[in-house]
Records
---
Amino acid sequence: MKAKVSWLEGMCFEGLSESGHNLILDGTNPGKGVSPMEAVLLGAGGCSAIDVVSILEKSRQQITGCEVELDAERAPEPPRVFTAIKLHFVVTGQDLSEKHVARAVKLSMEKYCSVMKMLDKALDASSSYEIREA
C-alpha cells in the first residue's frame, strides 16, 4: 500500500491514497480537515465497523445500521499518543441476536480489525455495544 501527503498551506495537507481517494489533514484546530490523530481514530472506527457489519451479514442477521462512537484519551505531554480508546457499537436491525452482535464485536476487536490490532499494542482498548430494533 502506498500513499502521498502534499503540503497545501499553513498546516493543511492533502493525503492521496493509492486507490485515488483524498483526505484533507490539518494541524490547526479547527482547521480545514481532520487532524492526523482524528484520522487514526476514524480509521479505527471505520475498520471495526466494516468487520462488524461483514460478520453480521455473513451470520444472516438483518442489520440495517451500525455506528461506532469512539472516545480516546491522549497523553498530556508530547508525543500526545493515544493511551486508551473506547469503542461503543450501536447496531440497528430486526430481530438481531445479542449473541451474534457480541461475537462480531469481539472478533473485530481481537482478530480482524488491523487498525485496532496495531493500536492495542500501545494502549488500553475496550468495547461495548447496544442493539436497537429497526
---
Amino acid sequence: MADSPSASRPLSPHLGIYRKMLTMMMSIVHRITGAALYFGTLLLAWWLIAAASGAEAYDVFSAHAGSWYGRIVLFGYTWALIHHMLGGLRHLVWDMGKGFDLRLVEWMARGTVAGSVILTVVVWVIAYQMMGAL
C-alpha cells in the first residue's frame, strides 16, 4: 500500500485537455438532440390531444404552432429528428463493424451535419409548397 491513496492512482484526464474533434461534438449533439426529441414529443402529444378535443383546443395549438416562435421550434424539432436519425444510421453502420477508417468516420460525421441541414430545408420547402405558400 502506498502512503496516500492519490499517490497510487492515476489522475483522470479532464475534458479540457482533449482536442475537440468533430466526432466528439457529434456525440454530444446526438445526446442533445435525443433530449430535445423527448420534449418535442410533448408538442406532438399536445397536437394530438388538441385535435381530439375539438376545434377550440386545436385553434389554440394552431395559433402557437403557426406563430414565428412556433415555427422556429418546429423547425428545430425537424432538424433534431433528422440529425438524430442520421446519427443513428451512422451508429448502425458501426454496429455492423463497418466504417471505422478514420477518413470515413470523419466523412460520415460531416455527412450527418450537412445531410441533416439539407434534409430539414428540403422537408420545409416541400411542406410550404404543399400548403401553397411558395
---
Amino acid sequence: MAVKRDAQATRLRILEAATAEFARHGIAGARIDRIAQASGSNKAMIYAYYHSKDQLFDAVFDALIVRNMNDVPVDVHDLAEYAARLFDQFQKYPEVFRIGAWDALERGSVGMKIEAVVEANRHKVAEIRRAQEKDLLSATFPPAILLDLVIALTQIRPLLMDGSGQQTDHAQRRQAIKDAVNALLRH
C-alpha cells in the first residue's frame, strides 16, 4: 500500500523548520540540510517547492508578515494600544523580529519591499493620514514617520542598557510603550 503524501502538510513543516533555522542563523548561516532534517523532508523536496534558499526565506518572511498583519491590525483610534498589541505579538513570536533583522542585515530589507508588506504599510499610513486630517491624531509627524516611530517603540530591549541584567517585566515595558506613543501624539 502506497503512502499518500500531503504536500500542504509538508510545505508547512518545511516553513516551520525554515523559520526556526533562519531566525537562529540568518540567511547565510542557515543550512538546507538542517531544515530538511528538522522538517522530515529532504533537500530535493525543499528545492522542488522553493527553488532556492532565498525563495524559501521569502516564503518564511511572507508567512510571518501576513500572520502579523492579520493578528495585529492598525487601530488609529488607539495607536498606543495598537503598539502594545504589536509589542505583545513580537514577544509571542520573537522570530518575526529576528527574521526582519536578518532581512535588513543580509538583504537590505528586500522583504519589506514585497507587495504584501508595501500594501499593508500603505493601508496603515493612509489610515493615519485620514485620522490626522480629521484631527483625531496629532499631525506633528507625517503619517509614515509616525508609523515608523510607533513600530520602533514596540521593539524596546528587555534588558537595561546599563548592562545590569535587570529585566523590566512585560507589563512595565508594555505600559512604557503606550505612554511613549501617547507622548508622540500630544498636540
